[in-house]
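Quick one: structure tokens for this chain, please?
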Amino acid sequence: MSDVAAKSTHPERVFSGVQPSGNLHLGNYLGAVREFVRLQEKHECLYCVVDLHAITVWQDPKALTQSIRELTAAFLACGLDAKRSIIFNQSQVSAHAELGWIFNCVARLGWLNRMTQFKEKAGKDKEAASIALYDYPVLQAADILAYKATHVPVGEDQKQHLELSRDIAQKFNNDFKVPDFFPQPEPLIRDDAARVMSLRDGSKKMSKSDPSDQSRINLTDDADAIAKKIRKAKTDPEPLPDTLKALEHRPEARNLVGIYAALADITSEQVLQEHAGAQFGAFKPALADLCVEKIAPIAGEMRRWLEDIPAIDAVLADGAERAHAIASPILRDTYEVVGLLRTRAIS
């Protein structure tokens, strides 16, 4: 057994990645990015623009470069601190790809065959999908374990992939007889995390892939656009009730109440206590005002960052250097455990 096998403690470390595939919207902010900001107050955090994941489907190269910078600007505008957290893009740290290949040799085909998201993303013509789209949960495991991250903020739809990361970590540890070499990363799922639905269809999640821009509030929307979208959001003719149970079969109403609650940082029950009996003609303006107050400043801050591309690139360069400093010794030890000969330092 090698010397590195004796290492058995893992400092608490948070990792999360977001694809640069278009503007972030209100659902991304309330469901994920706002929590990233909170986590950085108490934890060592790495937040990664996962551009290698983005190219599992075709991307226009110039648009991809712009999207990487836009997502970084959004992170910063939402309150991530580039000094407190490590903000970087995945392709600048080669450990992701290198560890991903080693994990390809550890993961099993049957595990990937059970991943439901590939079927959803590939659609009916899965034979035309890239191998990377099928295999990207293994790269996700490498993203996390390249830093021996112990905690990962995930939504319900990503829990299966985190389980795969845990399986890969455990099999690696068992195969190479290095107990606890890689940690078993734990999901961070807030019970009160906002699940934001489309403004046009309360049964579907708010999504940047929805062809209707009216279905979502983008973090780049100005105050007028935000207010207009809230005014036009689909509702029903009934007034707001005084209990959540009465909203069970009113998805659009429940969605708007949930958005108000999340933005105000209160419970949906408290929203109903305050607005019970109100028609949407009265509730929507209150929601629009709150949404403008919380979201419009983010758009302004994003514009400020995007006017200074060198500053964004400097954040990513610094983050990549700090991320590499963590990942490099972990990758070096991984090569040693596997028995791969390195006659020069991992750069």
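The longest helix spans residues 309-338.
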